[in-house]
Amino acid sequence: MSAQELIGVADALRFESPEPDHRIAYGSHPLQFGNLRLPAGDGPHPVVALVHGGCWLSMFDLTYMGQAEQAMADAGFAVWSIEYRRVGDEGGGWPATYLDVGSGFDHLRELSGLHDLDLTRVVAAGHSAGGALALWAAARDKIDSSSELYVDDPVSVQAVFALAPAADLEGLDIGGTCGNVVGRLMGGSSAENPDRYAAASPMQLAPVGVPQTLLIGGLDTAWGPPGRAYYNRAITAGDSGVRVVDLPESGHFEMVVPTTSTWPLVIAALEDTFAGLESGD
What we know:
Layout: H1 9-13, E1 22-25, E2 33-37, E3 45-51, H2 66-74, E4 78-82, H3 96-106, H4 108-115, E5 117-127, H5 129-138, E6 159-163, H6 169-175, H7 177-186, H8 194-200, H9 202-205, E7 212-217, H10 224-236, E8 242-247, H11 263-279
Helix pairs in contact: 6-7
């Protein structure tokens, strides 16, 4: 596959999303909702708690992930795909973006009884900026009680499945990525707001302490490096349960499109992630 054939941002914005089984509010703001897709058969169902990406910007919503959501549900997983306020939305950015995602995860407690979800098998998953947020969601119990992001007893996450995770917030801020979106998200640099980055950046929250699968596209020259930077940081911090799955034919979006040659590798890695929970690996 050549670079010219890769799925780009304009293509992703045109993706059509199949209707979810349920669209459920987890808060009172119009953007505090999620798509719930359920697999066939009886529960209790293992759960993929999914966070979309798009540079934390309001121009991207969860629509582009709809086909991936449904494919994951068809593979046997309940999928709870979270919308949240982003940079450019009223009230988006610090701290609302993080608080929304956290509230979305915690809403699984209410959903579990209604839809027979197994909260002992919850994998936090996300693409790009959503991958960073998935890593953050798995590490919420490490956040200091003085932080605006602190909550008592966040829902437990047993593993992370991060697709092209934009997890190096500090590096992305230095590079001015996506119109300096990290600085806009966080209200400044890590030097200006060290406490915020300490509570939000996967680079500083490592080691997360749960199994983590990082999927990196071999043709994703823009977003592969932040994922690998996080991997190196996690290993250095002592996170022995983190692994990289290389996707040689994927750019940034091929990994979330079920019709690509990359998707079978993605779904196999997701199945391996849940199998690891069953075996205790």
